[in-house]
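quick one, 100 residues, struct below
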Amino acid sequence: MNWGFNASNLDELVEKAKSTYPSTYKDIEYIGEVENLTVDGKDARKFVFTYDAGAARCKCWDIFLLLGKDSYLIGFTDMVENFDDNIGDYEQILKSISFN
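---
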């Protein structure tokens, strides 16, 4: 996905994304700090947030990668009350991702 961000590194990409989210997500709240991780050996950044989606409150993991000039977002979203029950599944999915 082309985010329209001319980011030269992952940290800049994440900051630009986070700066646009309040105009997209209602009552967004970031949880904790941005986390460094790898996906298929590639550097990535993850941040967690919650937001209002109508009558439900949702929780998200957004994981960003920058491969060459292309940015990637891997996102996991569920209702707040269900999200933590699915973390094991999200982690398994991340482990199964490969870039060719």
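Strands lie at 26-39, 42-53, 56-67, 70-79.
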